[in-house]
Design goal:
Elements lengths: L26 H9 L5 H5 L5 E5 L13 E13 L10 E6 L4 E6 L2 H4 L8 E11 L2 E5 L2 E4 L8 E5 L8 H11 L12 H6 L5 H9 L4 H31 L24 H15 L5 E6 L5 H14 L3 E5 L3 H14 L7 E4 L5 H13 L4 E4 L13 E7 L6 H8 L6 E6 L5 H6 L5 E5 L10 E5 L4 H13 L3 E5 L7 H18 L6 E4 L5 H12 L5 E4 L12 E7 L6 H8 L10 E5 L5 H12 L3 H12 L7 H4 L13 H18 L1 H25 L1
Parallel strand pairs: 4-6, 9-14, 9-15, 10-12, 10-13, 11-12, 13-14, 16-21, 17-19, 17-20, 18-19, 20-21
Antiparallel strand pairs: 1-8, 2-3, 2-5, 3-4, 5-6, 5-7
């Protein structure tokens, strides 16, 4: 069995030492660990397995089946090298027997491995069984001499690793540092540990890396999940305490909603409910911190406009910041049209604004003549000063960093803050990640909106799809074609997009204009192409995911996503939301050749479900929490072990325990106990909250 106690560790190591003190960690491997977020021995100890393989049962060779992963124990009957025995990559073939049958074990880098195997000795092998010329074989299994300390049997941890670090290496390194797991201090209050009868931290860490049975894994995971969620909720409590209860301006709402009666349409019930919640916040002598979430096209901008008008009605200025110039311009045109007869001064400020325009706007904001400003990050530049900023609205907040959002708020004296997002965030996520914000939700779509028909197909439909594109464009409609994400490489993404663009340009030669937009283009170049698409000068737009948040084109009726299995469900839903905005029936076509069961399941969900929030729950469940909704951008830590959906009961319990402890012993005691861990996990954002 796998015997951790037989390994020796470096007793001179300390928990805060660099990872490079470990044997075999040179600069190259240190760089790989850095990419994985592992800098110190403590980081390594807290880098937990993603899953486990149960390798406790030996399978007789006579019972092997092709495609199964098995553990076998067998002696070597004979061995032979490939044709050129002196070439380093020549294969090594072992014939092994366990008395129930014979099996071939193959290693393609046999030159180095040959000397590790002795005829007549027993070895343990773990790997996948395949069939070759009517005989079973295992290619490149994990192996060890039977009975040795390096045995591959037991409940074996499987880590999420980068190329250059093997599972075996990771397990060896964990073994090297095992004796100093106890050097990691408990960071949650002892009262909480006792109350919940939690396993010790040392026990939990050890049994996550070296479990002797499944029960101990469950005990250990519970402890670590609880710690993680308790820490998260403590940090969120500080945020809510620091930002949520700040005294702010009170906006008089007694005059009613005169503007609503002038709208050419009725608000949906979700819009009305959200607007009432915002009004309640505005009238209090307390700074509003509210998240307004609604699916693409649900009408968040109207609610935002009502909020801005109410602030202006009370003598304050309002600012709306969008992540791209084209989205800012879209908001500007839409809001200006709606407010055309109200006598309100509205301006647009972006990086593309001329020097003369900027000077005029800077002056108008400073003396109060400009009542409403819509723009990009240009709003947070030096030189932008407000006369009396009362309301800040941030659209697609996950596209901005923590500091960028804070800098806009600092342009006023505790202005109200409304954050908007079209990324559907599950209830469980809002409960945890956005726990410092009040949440308003617009779920239903405006009346008359047709659901987008969604189909998952493979590349054999290529010709039929192009015919379909041509048919829609012949009727005056427009088409999006989104390229697949290629190994998270911007360079390869661009290459794939350019190749598809040239292919489609040739296919529709002179009949229809084909455009290309990608992440490496300058903002002005992107805007030029997107505006041409908006005006109808481009009929088919090939794009990387830069159009995920972009211009509203009601005339676009087809969204075709290549390599759809490489996108998350929430991303696919966002892309689908680019069409279906006009009077005509729209279509979303998801192209994938993946045979993976999970990928197929996810694409079927897209065909069946239109509700973005339901999809977001499914996405969170399938992909895990991590940075799915931009935890890093929100300033909150990633989750090492916890899964927000699966562990929702632990989350609720952890939150209650945080509140109970603070009420019983005081917030200062909790801060003194948790300070070090909160600083580690929340970083600079937490420090700003704590000491500003």
């Amino acid at each position: 069995m796998f015997r951790p106690e037989t390994w020796s560790s470096n007793s001179s190591m300390e928990i805060n030492d660099s990872i490079s003190v470990l044997k075999g960690i040179g600069r190259k491997k240190a760089d790989i660990f850095h990419e994985m977020g592992i800098e110190t021995i403590e980081d390594l100890a807290l880098y937990f397995p993603k899953s486990y393989e149960d390798r406790r049962s030996v399978t007789p060779i006579s019972e092997l089946r092709a495609g199964s992963k098995v553990l076998i124990q067998a002696r070597i009957v004979n061995k032979r090298m490939g044709a050129n025995r002196f070439k380093k990559k020549t294969p090594l073939m072992l014939n092994v027997s366990d008395d129930s049958g014979m099996l071939e074990v193959v290693f393609f880098n046999g030159y180095f491995l040959n000397k590790l195997f002795d005829i007549g000795k027993e070895y343990v092998f773990y790997g996948s069984v395949s069939e070759n010329l009517n005989r079973f074989q295992i290619v490149h299994p994990e192996f060890a001499l039977a009975g040795s300390s390096d045995d591959v049997r037991g409940i074996i941890p499987i880590y999420s690793l980068r190329q250059g670090i093997s599972q075996k290496e990771m397990r060896r390194m964990q073994m090297d540092i095992k004796d100093i797991y106890s050097g990691i201090k408990e960071w949650i209050p002892e009262d909480i540990i006792r109350k919940n009868r939690l396993a010790s931290l040392d026990f939990a860490i050890s049994n996550m890396h070296f479990p002797s049975n499944a029960k101990k894994v469950l005990q250990s995971r519970y402890r670590l999940v609880f710690d993680e969620l308790f820490t998260l909720e403590t940090g969120l409590m500080y945020m809510k305490g620091a930002y949520g209860e700040v005294r702010g301006i009170s906006i008089d709402i007694s005059e009613g909603d005169k503007f609503i009666s002038k709208l050419p349409f009725e608000l949906t019930s979700g819009q009305v409910e959200s607007w009432n919640e915002i009004k309640d916040d505005l009238k209090k002598h307390k700074k509003m911190n509210r998240l307004l979430q609604g699916d693409v096209g649900s009408g968040k901008t109207i609610v935002a406009t009502l909020s801005l008008l109410k602030a202006i009605e009370n003598g304050y200025q309002g600012a709306l910041m969008a992540p791209t110039e084209i989205l800012a311009a879209q908001h500007y045109e839409g809001i200006r049209t709606v407010c055309a007869n109200l006598g309100i001064t509205i301006e647009l400020l972006t990086g593309s604004s001329t020097k003369k325009e900027k000077e005029y706007i800077y002056e108008g904001l400073a003396d109060g003549r400009i009542q409403m400003i819509i723009g990009t990050h240009a709003l947070i530049q030096e030189g932008v000063n407000f006369h009396n900023l009362g309301l800040v609205i941030i659209d697609e907040q996950h596209r901005f960093g923590v500091n960028q959002r804070a800098r806009l708020q600092q342009k006023g004296t505790y202005p109200h803050v409304l954050i908007m997002t079209a990324t559907p965030i599950p209830r469980t996520m809002t409960l945890s990640v956005y726990g410092d914000l009040a949440v308003s939700l617009i779920k239903e779509m405006p009346p008359g909106r047709k659901p987008v028909k969604t189909y998952a197909v493979d590349s054999s439909y290529k010709e039929r799809l192009r015919t379909f594109f041509g048919k829609e464009m012949a009727e005056g409609r427009q088409v999006y074609v989104v390229c697949p994400l290629v190994e998270e490489s911007e360079k390869l993404d661009l290459q794939a997009a350019e190749e598809l663009y040239l292919e489609l340009k040739e296919y529709f030669y002179k009949a229809y204009e084909v455009g290309l937009v990608h992440g490496r283009m300058k903002p002005s170049e992107k805007d030029e192409v997107m505006n041409a698409f908006h005006r109808g000068e481009i009929s088919l737009l090939v794009s990387t995911t830069v159009i995920e948040v972009g211009v509203n084109v009601p005339n676009a009726t087809i969204m075709c996503v290549e390599g759809a299995e490489r996108f998350g469900l929430s991303q696919l839903h966002q892309l689908r939301g680019r069409v279906g905005r006009g009077a005509h029936q729209s279509y979303c076509i998801l192209v994938s050749d993946s045979k993976n069961d999970v990928s197929q399941e996810r694409l079927k969900l897209m065909e069946q479900i239109q509700d973005g929030f339901e999809l977001a729950e499914q996405d969170l469940l399938i992909r895990g929490s991590g940075q799915l909704f931009g935890l890093a951008q929100s300033g909150l830590p990633d989750l090492r072990v916890a899964n927000i959906i699966k562990d929702i009961e632990i989350l609720v319990k952890a939150r209650k325990d945080v509140l109970d402890f603070a009420n019983q012993f005081g917030i200062e005691k909790l801060e003194s106990i948790m300070k070090e861990e909160l600083e580690k996990r929340f970083g600079e954002k937490f420090l700003r909250i704590l000491y500003n």
